[in-house]
């Protein structure tokens, strides 16, 4: 068990690097390889003790880099001194072998998303009951359990419903409040980018997620477009999808807590729940429909995207209730877009000199302060004329019918 603090370990990493340099200069490449290996070990130990996600990610990349250098010195007698830059590699050029799991780790680290830190429950309009339910069940999953009592909160849930209704926002808010490490996975991207390796990648994802829980902070794996894993596009595509899906299911199943709390939680999201099969669904304790916001929720979402962003509103002419009444069947995303368009038009009206100032040069534009004015109902009128909601009545019926069908098959 490591008893050193992160600072001592960071110093040890630096010591080993300097030792490696000295040894390389003296032509003792095998000794230098050992120093790099030790530097990587100290870096890995420190990862578990670092509380800052950015620092952990940077240290993990360094550990990987030192391991590569060590391996390169051992096998070729030369150190590969280039920095590890996985994001610069074109996906189709990545060829993996068993020894390349370090590269997979780097890809996984790129999935860690810090957006949740800025998402509060208050930045999500409506969904009041659901928010309370989520707080309660994730609270249960984190709280101390009395001796001999066997109760569990939610470990794996699946959000389903039309696009743009707040599924990602909810996952972010949970992660923020639990101070969790948030792995943001878009299933379709992983499947297409990691053809043939996606199963292994998923195992690496869950392994790293578990590693990040060592300090008691949970890890949340958010898998958006979950349905992309269950679709088949030709035999090969189907096989890879199946491999990835099987890996996720076995990870979700396999890490049952034995006396210890499982701090890795999976949140799936899909717009096409009917593409998920029974085996997948049975792994998720709850399937939760996130449907269109009702009138009260829309009023709330208008407020969040106007006054919530510091924009002034003329309350004599603009009422959120009225805007909500006129925006029936819009999703949260569409309401947000509408607010953005209205705001953009107001800004263009108030600041016609901006293009000229840009022509005058950086200094002119940087010394200019943007003018704003309170928004009025009339600003919204032109946009309400041609509103065409993205979600059809038929779509809504499909979600409801699917929900009923699944409930019946579970009962
Ligand atoms: P998709 O299924 O397409 O991934 P989603 O349901 O995950 O969509 P989000 O990404 O959570 O949707 O929301 C998209 C954007 O729409 C948010 O960034 C936000 O601006 C706005 N939005 C959606 N729902 C709400 C809400 N309830 N309150 C405030 N803003 C919302």
Question: Which SSEs are present, and which pair or pack?
Answer:
Elements: H1 6-25, H2 29-49, H3 53-76, H4 101-109, H5 128-142, E1 156-160, H6 167-177, E2 181-186, H7 187-193, H8 198-211, E3 219-224, H9 234-254, E4 264-270, H10 278-282, E5 286-289, H11 295-305, H12 320-326, H13 332-350, H14 354-360, H15 362-366, H16 377-385, H17 393-410
Parallel strand pairs: 1-4, 1-5, 2-3, 3-4
Helix pairs in contact: 1-2, 2-3, 3-4, 4-8, 8-9, 11-12, 11-13
The structure holds adenosine-5'-triphosphate.
The site of adenosine-5'-triphosphate (ATP) has 19 residues, from α6, α11 and α13.
Provide a concise account of the structure shown.
The chain is of the alpha/beta class and 411 residues long. It has 17 helices and 5 strands.
Q: List each distinct ligand once.
A: adenosine-5'-triphosphate
The H-and-E topology, N to C, reads as HHHHHEHEHHEHEHEHHHHHHH
The strand line-up of the biggest sheet is 2-3-4-1-5
> Briefly, what CATH class of the largest domain?
Alpha Beta
Number of helix segments?
17
Mean pLDDT: 83
Overall morphology = globular
The secondary structure category is alpha/beta
CATH topology of the largest domain: Rossmann fold
List unreliable stretches of 5+ residues. Answer: 82-99
Q: How would you portray this structure in words?
A:
This protein has 411 residues and is of the alpha/beta class. It has 3 domains: 6-85, Methane Monooxygenase Hydroxylase, Chain G, domain 1; 108-291, P-loop containing nucleotide triphosphate hydrolases (Rossmann fold, 3-Layer(aba) Sandwich), CATH 3.40.50; 295-390, Orthogonal Bundle (Helicase, Ruva Protein, domain 3), CATH 1.10.8.60. The protein is 54% helix and 7% strand. It is built from 17 helices and 5 strands. It has helices at residues 6-25, 29-49, 53-76, 101-109, 128-142, 167-177, 187-193, 198-211, 234-254, 278-282, 295-305, 320-326, 332-350, 354-360, 362-366, 377-385, 393-410; strands at 156-160, 181-186, 219-224, 264-270, 286-289. Strands 2-3-4-1-5 form a 5-stranded parallel sheet, with helices on both faces. Strand 3, helix 9 (234-254) and strand 4 form a beta-alpha-beta unit. The model is unreliable at 82-99 (pLDDT under 50). The structure holds adenosine-5'-triphosphate. Residues 124-126, 163-169, 224, 269, 271, 293, 301, 304, 332-333, 336 line the site of adenosine-5'-triphosphate.
């Amino acid at each position: 068990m490591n008893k050193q603090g992160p600072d001592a370990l960071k110093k040890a990493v630096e010591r080993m690097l300097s030792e490696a340099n000295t040894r390389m200069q003296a032509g003792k490449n095998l000794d230098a390889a050992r120093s790099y290996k030790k530097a990587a070990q100290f870096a890995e130990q420190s990862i578990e003790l670092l509380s800052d996600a950015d620092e952990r990610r940077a240290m993990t990349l360094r550990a990987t880099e030192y391991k590569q250098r060590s391996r390169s010195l051992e096998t070729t007698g030369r150190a590969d001194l280039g920095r590890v830059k996985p994001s610069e590699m074109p996906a189709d050029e990545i060829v993996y072998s068993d020894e390349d799991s370090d590269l997979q780790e780097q890809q996984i680290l790129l999935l860690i998303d810090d957006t949740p830190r800025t998402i509060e429950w208050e930045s999500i309009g409506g969904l009041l009951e659901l928010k309370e339910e989520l707080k309660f069940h994730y609270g249960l999953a984190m709280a101390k359990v009395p001796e001999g009592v066997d109760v569990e909160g939610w470990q794996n849930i699946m959000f389903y419903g039309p696009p743009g209704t707040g599924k990602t926002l909810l996952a972010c808010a949970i992660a923020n409040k639990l101070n969790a490490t948030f792995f943001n996975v878009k299933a379709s991207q992983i499947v297409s980018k990691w053809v043939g390796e996606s199963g292994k990648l998923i195992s690496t994802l869950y392994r790293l997620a578990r590693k990040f829980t060592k300090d008691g902070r949970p890890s949340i794996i958010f898998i958006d477009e979950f349905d992309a894993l269950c679709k088949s596009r030709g035999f090969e595509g189907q096989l890879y999808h199946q491999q990835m899906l099987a890996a996720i299911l076995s990870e979700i199943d396999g890490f049952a807590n034995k006396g210890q709390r499982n701090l890795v939680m999976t949140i799936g999201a899909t717009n096409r729940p009917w593409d998920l099969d029974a085996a997948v669904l049975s792994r998720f304790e709850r399937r939760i429909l996130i449907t269109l916001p009702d009138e009260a929720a829309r009023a709330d979402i208008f407020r969040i995207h106007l006054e919530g962003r510091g924009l002034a509103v003329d309350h004599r002419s603009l009422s959120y209730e009225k805007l909500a009444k006129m925006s029936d069947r819009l999703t949260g995303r569409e309401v947000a877009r509408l607010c953005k368009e209205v705001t953009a038009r107001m800004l263009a009206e108030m600041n016609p000199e901006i293009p000229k100032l840009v022509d005058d040069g950086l200094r002119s534009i940087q010394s200019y302060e943007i003018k704003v004015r309170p928004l009025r109902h009339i600003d919204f009128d032109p946009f309400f004329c041609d509103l065409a909601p993205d979600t059809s009545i038929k779509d809504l019926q499909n979600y409801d019918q699917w929900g009923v069908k699944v409930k019946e098959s579970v009962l």
